[in-house]
Design brief:
The protein is mostly helical and 100 residues long. Helices cover 39% and strands 4% of the residues. 26% of the residues are buried.
Amino acid sequence: MKERVFEFLLTIPKGKVVTYGQIAEYLGNKRAARAVGNILHYNPDENKYPCYKVVDSKGNLSKSFAFGGIENQKKKLETEGIEVNKNKVDLNKYKWQETK
C-alpha cells in the first residue's frame, strides 16, 4: 500500500491538491484515510513525493506536516499558486478530480 500511495502523489498536477480520503478511495478502501496520513508522515523523499499537496476532507493543512510543519506546507502550496487562507485551501477551486 505504501508504494501505491507514493506513486499516486506523482500524478497530482501542479496547482492541485487531494485529500487523504481521495487517496484511500483510489487504493480501494475509503476508510483508510488515516492509514494514508500515517504513510505520508514517513515520506522518504519530500522532493520526489509531494505530500504537501494532501489536505484533509475540509481542505485543512496538516498540523503535523513532517517537513517543516504547517507553515512550510503552506509555503509549498502557495509556490504552486494555491491560495491558503487560515491554513485552509478551497477544495472547490483546487481539489484535483483524478481519473482512474
